[in-house]
Amino acid sequence: MNHAARDVLNHHALRATDGRVRILEALRDAGRPLRVGELHDRLGTDRPDLVTVYRTLDRFVASAIARTVLLADGIRRYEIADQRHQHHLTCTECGRIEPLPFCEFSSLEALALQKHGFRVTDHMLELFGTCRDCAHHPR
Amino acid sequence: MNHAARDVLNHHALRATDGRVRILEALRDAGRPLRVGELHDRLGTDRPDLVTVYRTLDRFVASAIARTVLLADGIRRYEIADQRHQHHLTCTECGRIEPLPFCEFSSLEALALQKHGFRVTDHMLELFGTCRDCAHHPR
DNA sequence: GTTATTGCAAAGCGTTTGCATACCA
DNA sequence: TGGTATGCAAACGCTTTGCAATAAC
Known about the structure:
The structure is a homodimer.
Chain A: H1 2-11, H2 18-30, E1 34-35, H3 36-41, H4 50-62, E2 66-70, E3 76-80, E4 87-91, E5 97-100, H5 106-116, E6 119-130, H6 132-136
Helix pairs in contact in A: 1-2
Chain B binds a DNA duplex through helix 4.
């Protein structure tokens, strides 16, 4: 585990400091996009400074190790970028964020080009609603 | 024009102060989502305080006169809410934001429910790319 | 006249920067 | 050893809050 993280850092020509390894692992373990503060909280005792987390995440994004995720609340979150472009289901009851394993927009992008002369290079889609658990156990 | 704005405010049980009328008109005239600072700048001389713009926009959102728009940069923007739920094309070259007059997601929402037990109540979609003008006049 | 709204100042919060120290390669 | 990364403190920008003065109804 530890080695894998170091390898990733080395591969991206980033010095494999203890802080970076732990930040990368925390991001990986989370399985969902994390806010900077959340990530910092997860680093446990003797953790790197919050400022270091900010700087490290910037580095990770610049190196395409991580990417930012933007949801409707306007808060920037980060996730590991080793998977394909991804969307999320955000439960408005409990706040849980679940990755959405599909992405079908070729028709929409074709429409944008036809009707607006707009060539789509990227898109953002987020769905909000009630997750299974909250539907079964309403508050 | 002025009367129309006052009517809207009265209809929502908001006192029709000069500042609110001007903020509502500016939002209307913009034709695209505005940041708080942008909106404030557009209010011209003897304009209300920036704090008032913040408070007024909160009121407008609470009264469903306006709504917030969130794009990939994480900056909150506001637009008049008198039209249907809307998406945007954002040009990454010139920054222009263009409304997208369609929204087709029933199939996606059905899929989320089937596969994830997730009932979608809202969604956000933003497309990014190169607009017609920038494609014709590259920098 | 009563209550909501405004301006001003200041606090808050998340994020960034400067700089000296500590660390990795 | 040389250059990068870190911690700490402080600056920064956007947003919110407290409170007295003001204006709408």
